[in-house]
Amino acid sequence: MELYQGIILGIIQGLTEFLPVSSSGHLVLGQIFFGITESQLPFDISVHMGTLLAVLVVYASDIRAILVSVFGFISKAVSLKPMAHLLKEDKNLQLAGLILIGSIPTAFIGLVIKQFEHILFASEVLVGFMLILTGTILWTSKNFYFSKSKKDGFSIKKALIIGVGQGLAVIPGISRSGTTIALGMFLGLDRHNAAKFSFLLSIPAILGAQILSIKDMINSGLVIDSITIYATIVSFITGLLALKLLLSLVHSGRFHLFAPYCWLIGSLVLLSKFV
Fold it and tell me: Are 236 and 51 a contacting pair, CB within 8 Å?
């Protein structure tokens, strides 16, 4: 891989990890465009960690509050102090529990789909169809921005359903952020909480996937080169900008405007294969 290719792919990862257009789908298309056929495991791990860092920066205060609540709960549990009231009153502790619950179906589905990644990540046709599906999900979400029936908040059932959506987003062409935020709104969450839960839920998913990949990388004897380092820095910077842009669009009710782009790119991919 040349330096300019790594930089471009890093930009693609940074932008599409958070904008609801599928980062995995765009990375597949980008690598096919550049004729990169060899395994790029160290590169993929690094650029994903770059975008994960962007999430940690943007949601630093929320993450800090959740960790304080979790460690406080553990401390009371170890010292055998009463803690039942914490589960009912501490919203951050409840959110931590829902993130854990939502991560269960994500992990299970992700591990199953991982067995077929050599097929899924080599199919332009699949990426095309899934991008069109993503566009349809995004467009449908426009009917749920300002619904007045937002009486219910988070629940275990909703966390599980959103977790399933995140697991299926391992398939290239399905947007993780688009699917999980849209599902949150479909299930009655307001758009602000849907976006917040989506990105907090992404942290254990991205981290867990990269830890498993690092193990494979070590076993294969692969190393991280300078091109990968530059691409990771670029993915972090562009990811930070893209995440802030997406949150602005979600909060202003313009999240669905990415749908035509997904339809267009998906259709062009299919046309290139069938025409």
Answer: yes
* Token pair 């952020």 in the structure block, residue: 177
Six token digits for residue 81:
């102090």
Angle, vertex CA 249, rays to CA 156 and CA 63, nearest 5: 45
Question: What are the start-end ranges of the H helices in 17-90?
Answer: 23-33, 41-58, 60-78, 84-89
Domain that holds residue 249: 3-274
Tell me the whole-structure pTM to 2 decimals: 0.86
Rounded-to-integer distance, Cα 190 and Cα 181, Å: 10
* Interval 219-275: pLDDT, tens: 666 666 788 888 889 999 999 999 999 999 888 888 899 999 999 999 998 998 776
Number of domains in the chain: 1
d(CA 163, CA 106): 5
What value, to the nearest 5°, has the Cα angle with vertex 115 and ends 109 and 118? 120
Residue 13: phi and psi, rounded to 5, are: -60, -45
Tell me if 101 sits within 8 A of 160, measured CB to CB. yes
Spatial separation of the C-alpha atoms in residues 220 and 202, rounded to whole Å: 27
**CA 7 to mean position of chain CA atoms:** 21
- Of the candidates 235, 224, 170, the residue with the CA atom closest to the CA atom of residue 43: 224
